[in-house]
Each structure stands twice: as structure tokens, then as C-alpha cells.
Protein: Bcr/CflA family efflux transporter
Amino acid sequence: MNNKLKNHSLRLALILAAFSALGPFTVDMYLASLPQIMVFFETNVSMIQASLTASLLGLGLGQMVMGPLSDKYGRRTPLLISMILYIVSSISCAFLPNIESFIVVRFIQGVAASAGLVISRAIARDKYSGVEMTKFISLLIMISNVAPLVSPNAGSAVTSFSSWAGVFVLLGLLGILLTGITTWGLEESLPVQHRVSGNFMAVMKNYNRLFHDRMFMGYALVNGILYAGVFAFVAGTPFIYQNIFGVSPQTFSILFAMNGLAIMIGSQVVKRVAGRLAERSILRIGLSLSFISSFAILMAVLSKCSLPAIFVSTFLFAISIGIIGPVSVTLAMESHGQIAGSASAVLGTFQFALGAVTSPLVGIAGEHSAIPFGIIIFTTSLLAIFSYIVLIRRVETQSDGIKKAKTNT
Structure:
């Protein structure tokens, strides 16, 4: 790849990473403010975590709508409309009177943010394939994971001179910036002749095709289940770090951001070894690391280890996510270029829908227990490995057997 192409890829990756980062900013930026919001609305931990669950559901289910829309109408128009909705919903969150309305608007905010996630992956598939797509997705994930490094600290910085409401005003300003990028900085990547035509039934037919593709579903489940473990981490650590270990909001933001750095390390590893190792081999390495690190997390919380032990274990788990993420996305979308938006939607929906299930379970034993946190993360690792064995490995074995039989004959 020459320097001109490299510069174009980097520019595109930076733009798409900005939209990919909208999800993490929407989820992470207010995490350090959760205890303050709980006091403001005079509610409990479960209701506050329900606001997180609502945004995750919006991010997940919204992709099922935004993906097909982007296949039908192109990438830019649905993205532009969604960014405008994001501005309105974000600023509205700052002025709501009760926790119930806050939860509802957080869902709408999640739906609006979902367009950035699903369409950025679809644009990547429009532009690249094969090893080049693996490398580009790795670069995209590496850059977009600056968001977990920045967003908690940005949230803490805002609340140091403002109330928690200032966080949502800042998110609204971010939406304005992304609206400008969509209008003046993003080219349409899906030509009219390549767009999907048809009505609602055509959309359902595309989803039916994806759901009956065993390999696609295997990669989608591996990716989605492990990200459900990540969302359990996102929901649990504000209370584990601050209530159990007594760290300040600022220290929590730094510790939380380090896990974003870990995902970046994992993504960089993929970028370096892609083309040297087969993507499936890289995936198996990531799954092995996720099992070891999640088991270490479980042992750390059951034995009531110190904060450093939990931090190191979660750091290694985050590295495994950085390895598995880009490879599983590439392998899942490789054979579905014509409906890249819908394929991207299924991948993203699994992540956030499963995350919406695990997030509230973290607090089931109260805000002073980390045991559900450890159990959930280890369980997600086991289920991801099970999905790989049942849906992917068996097909690979059958395919290898067929090839061997043809060679012998």
C-alpha cells in the first residue's frame, strides 16, 4: 500500500472511528456520575443501571433499523438524520425531571448513536475485503478505543466544575461536531446501483439469510457474547472501584481508561500479525486469552483479592477483546458485502442486546459485592468458546474433511 493510500485509509479510519466512538462516549462518559445521578433522582442502584441498560438496548436494537436503512438509502442520509436526533436527545437528558423519563430518553439517545456504530462498519466493508479489511478494522478499533481512554476522564472533568447534567450537554456538542463531519467530511461509499431495493419483506429476507448462515452466526455470537462481558465490566466497575475499594471518581476514570488502552493493544497485535497468521488462528488465540483472564477475574473476586489483582485480570481480558473483535467482525462480514449494513447491524445488536442482559445482573447482589461481576464475565467467556466449537469449529472440520476426501479421490 503506497503512502497516498495509507493516508487515505488513516483519514477514513479517523472519521469512522469518531462515529464508532459515539457508542462508548454515550455509555462511558456518565459512568463516574452514576452515584450523583442516583442521589439527584432519589432512586436506587438498579434504576440507575436501568438507564445504562436502556442506552445499550437502544444501541443494539437501533442498529437493526439503521443497518438496512443504510443498505437501501446509502450511508450518509441515515447517518445525518441520526446525528440530529442524537443532539436533541442528549441535551434533553440534562433537563429531565425524573428517572423514568431519563431512562426513556437514554434509549432514544442509544438508538441515535447506533447509526455511527453500524454504518462505520458497513463503510469499512464497502471499501475493503480480506486481509486489508482485517487490518483496517483493527486500525479502526484501535483508534476508536481512544474513546474509553478519554470519555470517563472527560466526564469527571465536566462534573468537577458542573453538575452531571453538563456531561449530556457536552454529548450534544459532540453530536453537532459529528453532524458537521457527516455533511462536509464524509463521502458516500455505497453507489446507487449497489443499494438494496425492496420493502420490509426484503429486509426480513436478508436477516433470514444471515440468521441461517451458521458460520456468520458463530462469529456474531462469539463477538456479541464476549462484548456482553465488557458491558458487565462497564456497569459494575463504577460501584466496585468506588464503593468497595473507595477510589475517587478521578482515579476510577484512569483505571477504567486503562482498559481502553488494553483493547487498543489487542487491536494492534491483530494489525501486526494479520497476513502472517490466518484470521481463525488469531481468533483462537484471543479466545484462549479470554478464558484464562476471565477465570483469573472470577478467582480474584471470590477470594476478595486486592484492587491490583482485579485490575490486572480485567486488563488482560480487555486485550483478548481487542484481539477477538476485529477478527470476528471481518470473518463474519466477509461473505456478505452486498448487505453489509444488515450484517453489521446483527453484529452490533448482539453486542448491545446481550450487554443489556448482563449489565443489570452485575448489581443483583448489591453495590458492595463483586461476585456477580466475576461470575458473569467468566460465563461469557465460556459461552463464547462453546459457540465457537458448536457453530464454527464443526463447520471448519467438516469442510476440511470434504477437501481431504476430494484430494484423495
Summary: The two ends are 41 Å apart (CA to CA). The longest helix spans residues 371-408. Residues 94 and 165 are 4 Å apart (CA to CA).
